Amino acid sequence: MKRLVNWMMAALLALAAGMVSAADVPLGAGDVVKISVYGNPDLGLETRVSEAGQITFPLVGAVDVGGLSASAAEKKLGGLLESGGYLRKAQVNIIVTSLQSQQASVLGQVNRPGRYPLEGRRTVMDMLAMAGGMTPDGADQITLIRKRGGATTRDVIDILDIVRNGDLKGDMDVAGNDIIYVERAPRFYIYGEVQRPGAFRLERNMTVVQALSVGGGLTQRGTERGVRIKRRNAAGQIDVIQAKHDDLLLVDDVVYVQEALF
């Protein structure tokens, strides 16, 4: 987990050092653009793209820009000014000052949950870095919810596996209105004759002896021969299991250390 946190911090610094330009992001409803025409300051304005994907521009009226990149919208406006006989050579410049149409939500166990603009190509790891990385309680596996063609899909991404193996194939691209949700890490519970009873993060392939170590070890009255696991079965009932050192723990297991009998 420490390696994962370090990686996320490095990614965050990399993003802060150089953000991708929004010039190639398709414009959509709610985006605010600042338009200027070289040599014609009276034609400059800042406006918002309407729900219909249009802006109203001096001389040419309503112009469809929804789905166009800023550079494509520049060419379209310039062409309209020239074809309408208003300018012989129109040099139009468009800056996206507020990107509202292309945003994704990062929720759950992250340091700064919220909606973030997709300024250029963004992946799940990019979005997690923008949200300040995961909190210490964040799970290794996260959920990506997407809507494509009216259908909603749900993908589970193993962040720890991507970091350990360096395989970025699992780092999926993110589009507007996608939702990234980081769940709370699974837990186990330990009580009885241990130094630090309580709830703790359940690491992968965690054994009973590792759980005892997380709990600070046994008290002077505790005995390793008296360790029990209380586990809820499929019927919702609690099973009590005589634990061995190398037994693997499951989510929400309760480890109980009995007092030694002298």
Walkthrough of the structure:
- With 262 residues, this protein is an alpha+beta fold.
- The chain is 19% helix and 37% strand.
- The protein contains 5 helices and 17 strands.
- A 5-stranded mixed β-sheet has the order 7-6-12-9-10. Strands 14-13-17-15-16 form a 5-stranded mixed β-sheet, with helices on one face.
- Strand 15 and strand 16 (238-242) form a beta hairpin.
- Helix 1 crosses helix 3.
- The two termini are 41 Å apart.
- Residues 12-20 have low confidence and may be disordered.
Helix content: 10-25%
**What is the makeup of the main sheet?**
5 strands, mixed
- SSE succession: HEEEEHEEEEHEEHEEEEHEEE
Order of strands across the widest beta sheet?
Answer: 7-6-12-9-10
User: Helical element count?
Assistant: 5
Strand content: 35-45%
**How many individual β-strands?**
17
Cα shape: rod-shaped
- The assigned structural class equals alpha+beta
Give the C-alpha Rg: 28 Å
List low-pLDDT spans. Answer: 12-20
pLDDT averaged residue by residue:
88
Distance between the termini: 41 Å
